[in-house]
Amino acid sequence: MIELQNKQLTLISHKLCPYVQRAVAALEELNIDYKRIDIDLNNKPSWFKKLSPTSKVPILVVDDNSVLFESAVIAEYINDIAGNALLSSKPLAKAKQRAWIEFASNMLQNIGKLYSAGNKTLYLEVFNQLDAQFKILEQNISSQGYFDDSGFTLVDIAFAPIFRYASVFNDILSLELLGEYKKVVIWSENLIKRKSIESAVTPEYSKLLFAFLCKKDSYLGELSKQYQSRLIEA
Ligand SMILES: N[C@@H](CCC(=O)N[C@@H](CS)C(=O)NCC(=O)O)C(=O)O
């Protein structure tokens, strides 16, 4: 583990948050020492509300006195203090990487809309939007197994939580979010098994996500509850 001189990092997190996964993956990938504190988002501690301007996780507390929020910014800061191994040093290439990180954030918002959609029509609308985004990715990613030809970067870290969702949705609901997009499927398999990405979630992640889905008053929530009943009956 790298102990950065005079830097104490504390990540305020939640076990299911996809944005937290980005910060953890960056810290783990770069082998940086940090402390993680998971909080209950349904009962946010008052100290957290004081620290987080948006009242959202993740936040990164640096040296007990500086607070960073927004996962993409936190990941970039982590990369910067570790010597910038995960973004290009060329301005144009780096700007492109940041643009794709934004694209990933938009997809994550769509996944939130997908599992919250109240009926099948709304659900299919969002599903199709996501499908169109996966198609765009298929056309833009490298065929070498990561987003960029050059290898693993913060862009991969930004997309990894999407693939984590896709894998659980597929396992429990047979929902093939990644469709027939071959390069995307290979990329996703590559990311999910990478150590830093794996350690961004706890071993009970799938179980927790399933329980979360079952509580949702939504189309996917209903499908999850049906699956749960079949499990109990079997
Ligand atoms: N744009 C933010 C999104 C963070 C976010 O939406 N976090 C959610 C959990 S996944 C949260 O803290 N929600 C609490 C709330 O909205 O009250 C980021 O990238 O960090």
TrEMBL record:
Gene3D superfamilies: 1.20.1050.10, Glutaredoxin (3.40.30.10)
InterPro entries cross-referenced by the UniProt entry: Glutathione-S-Trfase_C-like, Glutathione-S-Trfase_C_sf, Glutathione_S-Trfase, Glutathione_S-Trfase_N, GST_C, GST_Omega/HSP26, Thioredoxin-like_sf
CC annotations in GO: cytoplasm
Pfam families for this protein: GST_C, GST_N_2
Keywords, ordered alphabetically: Transferase
Protein name: Glutathione S-transferase
Domain named GST N-terminal: residues: 7-86
Single GO MF descriptor: transferase activity
Family matches, as CDD domains: GST_C_family, GST_N_family
Highest taxon, organism lineage: Bacteria
UniProt domain GST C-terminal: residue ranges: 90-220
The keyword Magnesium is assigned to this record: no
Organism: Pseudoalteromonas denitrificans DSM 6059
Annotated transmembrane regions: none
